[in-house]
Write a structure and sequence with these properties.
The protein is an all-alpha fold. The protein has helices at about 5-10, 15-30, 35-70, 85-130, 135-140. Helix 2 packs antiparallel against helix 3 (about 35-70) and helix 3 (about 35-70) packs across helix 4 (about 85-130).
Length: about 150
């Protein structure tokens, strides 16, 4: 699989995500203001699940690749898949999704909805960064001049 595989970055579910968003907006119209926060939370959970699934697939693939390399006796070196595009592609994807999510949250729940949306976006990105670079939690950086 290449780093640009649509399934890898979660773009495959884009049409399904649009359907979920349309259904949420229609449900909001039908149910009224009383269910705004529940509808927004439900939609955000779906987005988070989709992102988590993409991250989990990527992590499983990378672990399998590392195990194969170790089994072949390859020297421990940095995974060549960890490119600039992969590191920042996920963040870019979440920011692209942040635009409609922010609009929905702002319209339905105001400032509280916007804050919840952005806390979720930051949380998903922090989780991705920690999964890719566990040393971030220890405060130590890898040597190798890759920045």
């Amino acid at each position: 699989m290449s780093a640009r595989d649509p399934q890898d970055v979660g773009l495959k579910g884009d049409a399904e995500l649009r359907k979920d968003l349309d259904a949420t907006v229609r449900a909001r119209r039908d149910l009224g203001d009383d269910y705004d926060s529940a509808l927004v939370e439900s939609f955000l959970e779906k987005v988070e699940q989709r992102l988590d699934g993409a991250v989990d697939r990527r992590v499983r693939r990378q672990v399998a690749e590392q195990q194969m390399a170790a089994a072949r006796g390859a020297a421990a070196r940095r995974n060549p898949v960890d490119s600039w595009g992969e590191r920042y592609g996920f963040a870019l994807l979440t920011l692209v999704l942040a635009v409609p999510l922010s609009a929905i949250a702002g319209a339905l729940a105001g400032l509280a909805g916007m804050l919840a949306t952005w806390i979720g976006i930051v949380g998903v990105n922090a989780t991705q960064a920690i999964r890719q670079h566990p040393e971030l939690l220890s405060g130590r950086r890898r040597s190798g001049g890759d920045d």
